[in-house]
Amino acid sequence: MLITTPLATPMAVVNLNWGGGVTGPKKVVVASDLPVDCLLGNDLETSAWAEVELEAHAAMLGIPGHIFALTRAQAKKQKGQGDLDPGRMDQVLPKSRGSKGKSLPTIPPSTVDSTSEEEEFPPCAETTPEELEADTAELLGEGGPAREELSVAQQTCPTLEGLRQQAVKQENGDVSDFHRVYWEDNLLYTEARDPKPGAARRLVIPQEYRKFLLTLAHDIPLARHLGQMKTWDRLVPLFHWPRMSEETKEFCKSCETCQDSGKTGGTPKAPLFPLPVVGVPFERVGVDIVGPLDPPTASGNRFILVVVDHATRYPEAIPLRTTTAPAVAKALLGIFSRVGLPKEVVSERGSNFMSAYLKAMWKECGVTYKFTTPYHPQTNGLVERFNKTLKGMIMGLPEKLRRRWDILLPCLLFAYREVPQKGVGFSPSELLFGHPVRGPLTLVKEGWEQPLKAPKQDIVDYVLGLRSRMAEYMKKASKNLQASQELQKQWHDQKAVLVQYQPGQKVWVLEPVAPRALQDKWSGPHTIVEKKGEVTYLVDLGTARSPLRVLHVNRLKPYYDRADLTLLMATDEG
């Protein structure tokens, strides 16, 4: 029980010594016994003697019949905070949650022996009725119409004319309809003629109140944007109106929060448009950079410049310390000095590949350069697939050799070039050189067999035979590659849909990097400026750094405006 009778007790100043050479004066109350049961400690050195009125603080913090004691955790927390004011209770006790960070008041020591029956404390900050109403509206939604207003709307809404006629027919004895429609207490209801146990009758909703119910079922915090089916499941046991399923679907689809977070699902993938098959080695090449690969090798190499021939699948890979435009250009010229200058180069949109330095080199060499659509590596899929294989081969090295991958890179390339490629039916080396390369297995076989003497052949005959052989290989490889592309396109396009956008249309753009857990997946809405190709569009992103950008259609999805939806609902049912 709390003590309600004021205590008039004498005070005294006592010089205390609690060990460790620490002494000091303390104000104490002189009494023959304690007014309440309490716990005492001997850690006076770290204690804060808060001289406050017991009843006032106990009542304020809701701790009936107890006196405040300083716990070890509180004492430890106070170390390093300097001397505590013994008249400040907020230095000992945690702040009240209802105070919104405000400190408790200072209690002068003289109030301990005060005979006043009531101490003045400012009340904790409370929620005003207006704030409570606003918070409740945000949580539960705005209030609905009055019963009388709903009844009048049911009797006058043009979209309910058919249901009102059904109610009249059924009242006259017509039982042909599957559902009952009837008036009760001036409200229109519908229910199944043979309802399931526990099924409630469904209130018929006029058009002007449907958006209100859809908002409650989907948008408010207690609904939390759980999708079309769950929104429908909330509504259908209680309410009914014409086209309720379609309007629920369109309402959820036009939710900007769901579109922004990706809940409405992505648009179907666009059909596959393979690059044309090339029949001449190193006429078209794909270029990319792998890395950084950490830790770097002993030579300081952290990157790999990769070049893959589209005709033969023959790869080249050069280790690099840096990916500056001059370093990349030097490595490319080293490769092209062996295989010849290509007619066409396909690369990503890295700053090194798009630099003026490389563009000038391509122009000087008569090379046409094409860049992939931003964040759509499938355009350069041949190189990307080789990059994955190459990184897997490096990771497959023993750990002690992994940091020497730049020295072992020729061995890894030989392993890849030697074996046939599934799409073309020949190995890259065989397509490029016109014969299989001599590898470890060939050496073993030759060691077991009697050495065979190669037949002597005139050099002209050799060259003619090599040309004929390579022409045959490339013809077969092109045919196999064409068949492989057609099969891949057939499988890919089974569920593909070529979505078309019009200039001025609003769209969402998929973010290029994996978002954090609470980060939106899509940005927008943005505006389509023009169509650039079969599956590419110029989009106005509205950013200062890159306002216009060409994007692949797979990174876009339509933006649905709820204002347009509301107009459509009124037009269709009006």
UniProtKB/TrEMBL annotation:
UniProt region (Disordered), positions on chain: 78-130
Database matches in Gene3D superfamilies: 1.10.340.70, Ribonuclease H-like superfamily/Ribonuclease H
Protein name listed in UniProt: Gypsy retrotransposon integrase-like protein 1
A Gene Ontology molecular function term of the record: nucleic acid binding
GO biological process entries: DNA integration
SUPFAM superfamilies with a match to the protein in the record: Ribonuclease H-like (SSF53098)
Pfam families reported for this sequence: Integrase_H2C2, Integrase_p58_C, rve
Domain (Integrase catalytic): residue spans on this chain: 277-436
Highest taxon, organism lineage: Eukaryota
